[in-house]
Amino acid sequence: MKETIEQLLNKVRSFTIKSAEELEQFRSEFLSKKGKLNELFDQFKVLPKEQKKEVGQILNILKIEVTEKYEQHRNLFQQETKSLDYNDLTRPSEPIHLGSRHPISIVRKEIISIFQRIGFVISEGPEIEDDWHVFTALNFPLEHPARDMQDTFFIRRNPDILLRTHTSSVQIRIMESQKPPIRIIMPGRVYRNEAISSRAHCFFHQVEGLYIDKKVSFADLKQTLLYFAREMFGIHTQIRLRPSYFPFTEPSAEMDISCNLCGGSGCAFCKYTGWVEILGCGMVDPNVLENCNISSKEYTGFAFGLGIERITNLKYRVNDIRLFSENDIRFLKQFTSAI
Ligand code: PHE
């Protein structure tokens, strides 16, 4: 056994290690679990006692030399790789993959910031609501056909608990808890029991606006919406208000903007009318103010509600609302460079 160890010692001393691969060869030959060193220690265990002292000494020398040689070279190669990492400052860096915001988030942020610039503050409310906040307080009498305008999801067949069909419910929550002047913008997700198609979905997003103070007039509403349309779609955008009906506003209107694709001259997108509808609005109905304990003699206000998907469709020319919730990376990737 003594001779085997001496032969091995010579082999270790003459083993040249010039690369990381050679170092690995060295390690696996001598130092690994099934390597020579372990093999020798196993044989050593069963050696007759009288031989142990002599063989033990030389076996120890072998062990020390093998480990030292391995460690020295390991440090060398590690240093080499380290210095490579730090020295070449001209090496191109790893590509940084930019994430992207969802188009709905981009547009929601933009709408909010447009209204914040004229003093509106954000308010939010729950998506699971009760009948009072979504309908009754908003002047939808029980059994009134206007409730059918928005097909509702009820929770556990309880007619009182439902998923809000519009963000107008947040108006009520705020008017119940705050005193005028109130000037708020209310973004949020809403739900309607509608068949899913390229134009409708069972959930979508709205931004609601509400301004209550003394002497707020329809002219204020119109001017605010004109400001919004021009900030959002460009300075040359025209608006028009068409009479409409909502139980919670009187008078009520729907607002169109001049088609931002053809500039108003008529194209397939605006069905050759030159106009596209973007929101509903009106003066807050006195009944709604009274339902929230705000005097309708002292205060007036306006409200409006718009669909974020609709504005996004117009802005980015997306023609299928389902794309917003399908998580198709090919669609979402296109918004990487947007804010
Ligand atoms: N809540 C209405 C809807 O979802 C929009 C609206 C809001 C209309 C505020 C007028 C005033 O259709």
Q: Unreliable stretches, pLDDT < 50, 5 or more residues?
A: none
Largest sheet report: 7 strands, mixed
Contiguous helical run count:
11
Strand content: 15-25%
End-to-end Cα distance, whole Å, is: 75 Å
From N to C, what is the helix and strand string?
Answer: HHHHHEEHEEHEEHEEEHEHH
Kindly describe this structure.
The chain is α+β, with helices and mostly antiparallel strands. The chain folds into 2 domains: 2-86; 103-335, BirA Bifunctional Protein, domain 2. Helices cover 40% and strands 21% of the residues. It contains 11 helices and 10 strands. It has helices at 2-14, 20-31, 36-45, 49-87, 103-116, 131-134, 168-177, 218-233, 286-291, 308-316, 329-332; strands spanning 121-122, 128-130, 154-155, 158-163, 182-191, 203-213, 239-246, 249-258, 275-284, 300-307. It has a 7-stranded mixed sheet with strand order 1-5-6-10-9-8-7, sandwiched between helices. Strands 2-4-3 form a 3-stranded antiparallel sheet. Helix 3 packs antiparallel against helix 4 (49-87) and helix 5 crosses helix 10 (308-316). The chain starts with a helix and ends in a 7-residue tail after the last helix. The model has no long low-confidence stretch (mean pLDDT 91).
